[in-house]
Predict the structure.
Amino acid sequence: VCNPRRNHLLQSGNKSDHVNAGKLAELLRAGLLQPVYHGASDVRALKELAHAYDQLTQDRTRVMSRLKSLYRARALACAGTAPYSHARRGEWLEQLKEPTTRQRAEWRYRELDAVGGLRREAYKQLLTEARPHPACQRLLGVPWLGPIRTAQLIAAVGSPHRSRTKRQFWAYCGLAVVTKSSADHELFDGRWVRRAGAMQTRGLNVQFNHRLKAVFKGASLSALKDETVRRY
């Protein structure tokens, strides 16, 4: 219910359930606890489906990587999507000479088919749940977002009013530019004056929502395939 990054008092001294409860009570009494946004209840089902789809996508990618590792470990070139093709699986399995290794690959193929079927089912339910949302049709009009990114965006944000301005929203998406400076002043004629020169950029912020950053980064990479956008 509160932001753990702001509760620095809990990191000092002894730690136990009793001690932590007392420190939280002190912070609450002083008004130093920062609440965490939970969102509206109308997108709770969409959040659960988005979590399930993301986890199944990660599981599918993990199985595909483990399957290719079997071929790479035996010096078999397996670039591209050919090793996953249903029509050519027999050809790839014949290249594995050890019976136990071939059995492992067959189990991986069966696991890939099972996870792929569950992922397709989660994909359909996610789109069905997101379609009635009021923001769905408007977001679908944004180029390169697409239905799945739109559903993930609605599930992650919930309400557009949770951020005071777009600056806070970009930081939540991991797209805020971070600047740092050091030795900003120098001693000149017996007094401290500010050095000339602008602050240096140090990349983007490191605390963000990973799903939102993946949505906007994926949309940007898709936009770069368009020749007009690429020229711009």
Q: What stands out?
A: The mean pLDDT is 90. Residues 139 and 150 are 6 Å apart (CA to CA). The two ends are 45 Å apart (CA to CA). The longest strand covers residues 200-204.
